[in-house]
Amino acid sequence: MFGKKNSVSVTIDQFSSLVSSNVSLTGDMAFEEGLKISGAVTGNVYHKPGTHSLLALSTEGRIEGNVSSYDALIDGTVVGDLVVEHLLELHSNARVRGNIRYRQLSMENGAVVDGTLSRLDDEEIGQVVELPRLHSREG
Q1: Other CB atoms within 10 Å distance of the CB of residue 129
Q2: What predicted TM-score, i.e. pTM, was given to this entire model?
Q3: In terms of DSSP H, where are the helices of the chain?
């Protein structure tokens, strides 16, 4: 009567990079493969185009800047726009203040989005997704 549901999820095998909870980083970050952020980043965080990257933002993690990734698991705070080319999982502690563009979305109860949600079209998936850059704070 009840068939097995085809659910899509991301598995975390290993991360090639880590921003630990005792680290505060200022500046833009480009990554590929896996990046786990438990600390604070002030600046844009974006994946290298054409890579199957995974961004995991833990509960205590915070990003103030625009974010892009192929897959993303968000359980912390993002203040900025978020573009995820494949699967976005917003966990219960996720707080996003900005617009989100995604291909597939999973959202748990408790997650909060203060912005718009829009699905990426098939034509947009293969294209490089450009994020606006934050202006430098240098005077």
Answers
A1: 17
A2: 0.80
A3: 122-125
Q: Give percent helix, percent strand, percent coil of the chain, each to the nearest 5.
A: 5, 45, 55
Are 36 and 52 spatial neighbours (Cβ–Cβ below 8 Å)? no
**Lowest-confidence segment of 24-28, 29-33, 106-110 by average pLDDT:** 29-33
The pLDDT tens digits for 57-110 are: 999 999 999 999 999 999 999 999 999 999 999 999 999 999 999 999 999 999
- In Å, the largest CA–CA distance within the chain is 66
Separation CA 77–CA 57 (nearest Å): 8
- Collapsed DSSP state (helix, strand, coil) of residue 62: strand
Sequence-ordered strand ranges (E) for 53-133: 54-57, 62-64, 67-69, 71-74, 77-79, 82-90, 95-97, 100-107, 112-114, 117-119
Per DSSP, the three-state class of 100 is: strand
61-84 exposure pattern, b = at least 16 Cβ within 10 A, e = fewer = bbbbbbbbbbbbbbbbbbbbbbbb
Q: Are 69 and 85 within 8 A, CB to CB?
A: yes
